[in-house]
Design a protein that fits this description.
Strand content: 15-25%
Number of strands: 19
Strand order of the largest sheet: 16-15-18-10-1-19
Order of helices and strands: EHEHHEHEHEHEHEHEHEEEEEEHEEEEE
Oligomer: single chain
Helix content: 25-40%
Length: about 375
């Protein structure tokens, strides 16, 4: 049997750590991607047990599931704007907070709310460099009418998203300055902006002075950071699977597609029924197109050759090297110097966002 195990206590400790770092700024727990792969409902429950009652999602169906499962009074912010009338009606039915990021989606939300005799709660998204959703900082003249004339919308918040908080102090400060410029322009026009929030996980950990009126935390809850340092957070989640087969391969025997590995000596191997289909050995962030990104990736691969970088798993207290290419549904490991037997449990690191084909078990 194989499963992905999550220690609930580690998540609770991470949440308490993050609450201390956030200080007076409330935490919005980002539960997109099915709770970062660990399950929307169990993650929401753990957050609520730790006193966090503000959630961010990207799909109306997630808001519906939360409401249906007893999260009746929690604030739910949909980070993705929408111009789909059915989704707008759904958000209003669920008493969820909409995101407004253009004149088009603002007009639709306002119109439907007025038709229904309601006032829709919304946050305004500002694009300070992420290049996805949001009004540009120069679009203040398009933002003001939402406050001034759209009686079907009550703006309770305004936010932007930091694209380089994990790697660039300069870029982050420039984004913060641009966002502040929008806030000042709205105030100068005579309107309350609503609660401002700018920090994601990297933002809170590396720029705590930018916590403002709230922080949106996702990956940090799992302790899986894309930058150096642990910040006292515990990395959450590990795959465990039982050894299916153990045998010896003679010298000169090969392993895996393309015969990528060849035995230099008689080698004892173990086969584990987990492969790339389940997310093992899969990495994100390779969709690079800038010359410097391509050079960085090439240099990293070259460095890996000289360092003899290899995938490993943990068997008991021992690290075991993966042999050959990782298969779709299985992995071969070297256990020549390790005492083991059929059914022994192997631990394998898998990013939960890449996880599929196995149960997630909270302990």
């Amino acid at each position: 049997m194989k499963a992905y195990y999550v220690e609930s206590g580690d998540i609770r400790k991470n949440l308490e750590n993050l609450k201390k770092r956030a200080g007076d700024a409330p935490i919005w727990a980002v539960l997109k991607g099915n709770g970062y792969g660990l399950g929307l409902l169990p993650m929401a429950q753990l957050c609520r047990e730790c006193g966090i009652t503000r959630f961010c999602i990207t799909e109306p169906n997630d808001a519906a599931l939360l409401r249906k499962s007893g999260f009746a009074s929690e604030q739910i912010l949909m980070l993705r704007p929408t111009t789909d009338p059915d989704e707008v009606h759904m958000l209003l039915d669920l008493n969820a907070i909409a995101t407004v990021s253009s004149q088009d989606d603002a007009a639709l939300l306002n119109g439907i709310a007025l038709q229904r005799g309601m006032v829709a709660e919304a946050h305004i998204a500002i694009d300070t460099g992420m290049g996805r959703y949001g009004f540009l900082p120069s679009d203040v003249d398009k933002i003001i009418p939402i406050y001034a004339y759209m009686d079907g919308i009550a703006v309770s918040g305004i936010y932007t998203h930091l694209h380089s908080a994990f790697c660039s102090k300069k870029a982050t400060r420039l984004q913060a300055a641009a966002f502040d410029g929008v806030l000042q322009a709205i105030k100068k026009a005579g309107y309350e902006t609503g609660t401002p929030h700018i920090c994601n996980s990297a933002g809170l950990l590396r720029f705590p002075d930018l916590a403002m009126g709230g922080v949106r935390i996702g990956s940090a809850i799992l302790g899986r950071l894309s930058f150096g340092g642990s910040y006292g957070l515990k990395r959450v989640g590990v795959c465990e699977a039982a050894i299916d087969e153990i045998r010896w391969l003679p010298k000169g025997h090969t392993c895996g597609y393309g015969a990528a590995w060849k035995a230099k000596r008689p080698t004892r191997i173990a086969i584990v029924p987990v492969g790339w289909y389940h997310g093992f050995g899969c990495e994100m962030g390779h969709d690079v197109f800038r010359t410097r990104d391509q050079l960085r990736a090439a240099l990293s691969a070259l460095a890996g050759i000289f360092r003899r970088k290899a995938y490993c798993v943990t068997l008991g207290t021992q690290r075991c090297k993966v042999l050959g290419h990782i298969g779709m549904l299985h992995t071969v490991i070297d256990v020549t110097k390790v005492k083991c037997a059929l059914g022994d449990r192997v631990q394998m690191n898998i990013n939960p966002l890449m996880l599929k084909g196995m149960d997630v078990v909270f302990r």
